[in-house]
């Protein structure tokens, strides 16, 4: 492989990497995360639901009350599994 071909390959790889980075940035910019959601699973069924009541950890007087509720079919024979994002898992929270 000649030296010129190697440099062309390096340039192509760098440009492709930069293009992928810019493309990823364009696809993700402007996405509003909103309030965090939890996943609830039991006996083959799952739902994602937002908070019923959500407060800012730094200022507990800064609260939102979207009153989000969800229903999951099940009974006492099957356990319920909760999956929470890190932002909820590391902060004080309670399940109502």
Description of the structure:
By secondary structure, the protein is an alpha+beta fold. The protein has 2 domains: 1-31; 38-89, no CATH class. It contains 2 helices and 5 strands. It has a 3-stranded antiparallel beta sheet with strand order 2-1-5, with no helix packed on it. The protein has a two-stranded antiparallel ribbon with strand order 3-4. The longest helix has 26 residues, at 3-28. It is elongated and about 70 Å long.
- Which structural class do you get from the secondary structure elements? alpha+beta
Number of helices, where a helix is a run of at least 4 consecutive DSSP H or I residues: 2
Q: Uncertain segments of ≥5 residues (pLDDT<50)?
A: none
Biggest sheet overview = 3 strands, antiparallel
| Total domains | 2
Radius of gyration: 23 Å
Determine the strand fraction and express it as a percent band: 15-25%
Helix content: 25-40%
Q: Which sequence of strands runs across the widest sheet? A: 2-1-5
Order of helices and strands: HEEEEEH
Shape: elongated
Average of per-residue pLDDT values = 84
What separation lies between the terminal Cα atoms? 67 Å
Number of strands: 5
